Predict the 3D structure of the following.
Amino acid sequence: MNLSPTWLIANWKMHGTHARVRHFAYAVNDALAMAPAALKAVFCPPFSYLETARAALPPNARLAIGGQNCAKDAQGAFTGGISAPMLADCGARYVILGHSERRLFMHETDDQVSAKVQAAYAAGLTPIICIGETEAEYQAGKTAAVLENQLKPLLDANRRIAGATDGRPALIAYEPVWAIGSGKTPTSAEIEAAHTHIKSILGSAQPVLYGGSVKPANIREILSIASVDGALIGGASLEVESMCAMIAAVTT
């Protein structure tokens, strides 16, 4: 299993309460105490609970905090918007950008995601950039072409995708749209091929995570794939017991 390093990102989407977030942050950070230093974990609750998560963690916490999205602008007359500096001010160090649900339901484009990446870097955040193909594109054998198209605006941006100026890398999350919340996962060979293709574009040192119906039953197999550097976890991260089981699977 690749532990240099391995990333576990808990994306809670639109779930949670103050009590649940507080309990999760404390318990998962406690579970990480005995884990190898190479295991990096990030908790991404809804924006309204970032402060709750931060308050539940000690100053030397192993569990980092992340946001689920940010605006491309640092401030302005954008009702309901949440900027990258606001996330940072609430204690976030990471932010998920370009998640398939936002691309599908909110019609985010690759260029918009690229602009948000720049905003994240400017605010000192590490972006977790999601890319992936739909089921129709998968069935048509277009996975590689889709990934290239989604990465191009990011490669054309002013900052290198492989790292911000202070040396913090971006994280790429390959999440096949057809696998999100469906219980389906690609074969190990398909995951390996997609991750290898991404690394061929961005460089072998680029961390690439897998996302899409990751759970305790399959996380060990997924993370045993040489090109997989971690997992972006949705529904299976909502319960402390499930998240701790995945931490145990990675570290034992």
Residues 65 and 92 are 5 Å apart (CA to CA).
